[in-house]
């Protein structure tokens, strides 16, 4: 894969942060609700966003990418 520009890395980092935020919010909502159907939906949405984040991370880092919850975009030193 070609080296990404600083602007592309910033965009990727923003996308990963968005996915992580969605996961956290849906997981929190699932824990707070008492309705089973709603809890199941929130957990499903959290899982979808977690998979999106993993896919974006794998596209950037390759198959050796680490767990989604510990995402950091690594920038090459100039």
What can you see in these coordinates?
The protein is mainly alpha-helical. It is built from two helices and no strands. The chain has helices at about 5-30, 35-60. It starts with 5 loop residues before the first helix and ends in a 17-residue tail after the last helix. About 15% of the residues are buried. The model is unreliable at about 65-78 (pLDDT under 50).
Chain-wise SSE layout:
Elements (H helix, E strand, L loop, with lengths): L5 H27 L3 H26 L17
Helix pairs in contact: 1-2
Short recap of the structure:
This protein is mainly α.
Largest sheet: none
Q: Determine the N-to-C terminus distance.
A: 18 Å
Number of helices: 2
- The helicity comes to 55-70%
The secondary-structure element order is HH
User: Gyration radius, to the nearest Å?
Assistant: 15 Å
The low-confidence parts are 63-78
Shape: elongated
Structural class: mainly alpha
Average pLDDT reading: 77
β-strand amount = under 5%
Question: How many E-type strands?
Answer: 0
Labels describing this entry:
mainly alpha; 2 helices; 0% strand; elongated; disordered C terminus
């Amino acid at each position: 894969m070609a080296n990404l520009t600083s602007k592309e890395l910033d965009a990727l980092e923003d996308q990963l942060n968005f996915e992580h935020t969605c996961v956290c919010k849906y997981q929190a909502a699932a824990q707070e609700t008492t309705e089973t159907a709603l809890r199941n939906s929130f957990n499903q949405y959290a899982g979808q966003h977690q998979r999106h984040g993993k896919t974006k991370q794998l596209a950037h880092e390759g198959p050796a990418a680490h767990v989604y919850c510990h995402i950091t975009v690594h920038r090459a030193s100039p």
